[in-house]
């Protein structure tokens, strides 16, 4: 079964529909590439997918350790490169809630995040700069 349907709606904009839920995501070309910048660009969604995957994977895997990670946050910065134009670096700053994690728990959480499916799916030439705030 297909995952999504993407419709080009004109003016450098698409609407992607998640087929299982019907949820929609709009993308817009960035202003530095002839777009309006009124929504996530395709490369924004790529960079943001890394952070959402990290947080989701942490939440999935940490359940068996009885740790509360509610309130985790991530700030994402996408750095573009040229020749060819591509995402050259994704910077993710993960901020963990102040739940008194031990060093061992923090190491476990960081390892889970760094090995999430999106992190492992990105090309090795795409630099991933990940930091954690405890």
List keywords for this structure.
alpha+beta; GMP Synthetase, Chain A, domain 3; about 130 residues; three-stranded mixed sheet; 3 helices
Look at the structure and give the mean pLDDT: 97
Counting DSSP E segments of at least 2 residues, the number of strands comes to 6
For the record, the CATH architecture of the largest domain stands as 2-Layer Sandwich
Share of helical residues: 25-40%
Structural class: alpha+beta
Q: Approximately how much beta-strand content do the residues carry?
A: 25-35%
CATH topology of the largest domain: GMP Synthetase, Chain A, domain 3
Number of domains: 2
Give the radius of gyration. Answer: 17 Å
Bulk shape: globular
Main β-sheet: number of strands, strand sense, barrel status? 3 strands, antiparallel
CATH top level class name of the largest domain: Alpha Beta
Order of helices and strands: EEEHEEHHE
**pLDDT < 50 stretches:** none
With strands numbered from the N-terminus, the spatial order across the biggest sheet is 1-2-3
Question: CATH superfamily of the largest domain, please?
Answer: K homology (KH) domain
Tell me the number of helical segments per DSSP (H or I, 4 or more residues long).
Answer: 3
- Compute the separation of the termini in Å: 40 Å
């Amino acid at each position: 079964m297909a995952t999504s349907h993407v419709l080009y709606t004109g003016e450098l904009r698409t609407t992607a529909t998640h087929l299982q839920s019907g949820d929609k995501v709009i993308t817009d070309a960035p202003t530095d590439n002839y777009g309006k910048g009124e929504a996530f660009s395709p490369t924004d969604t790529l960079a943001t997918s890394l952070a959402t995957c990290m947080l989701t994977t942490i939440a999935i895997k940490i359940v068996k350790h009885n740790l509360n990670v509610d309130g985790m946050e991530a700030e994402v910065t996408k750095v573009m490169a040229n020749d060819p134009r591509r995402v050259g670096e994704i910077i993710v700053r993960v901020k963990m809630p102040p739940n008194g994690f031990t060093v061992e728990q923090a190491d476990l959480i960081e390892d889970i995040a760094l090995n999430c499916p999106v992190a492992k799916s990105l090309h090795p030439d795409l630099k991933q700069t990940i930091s954690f705030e405890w």
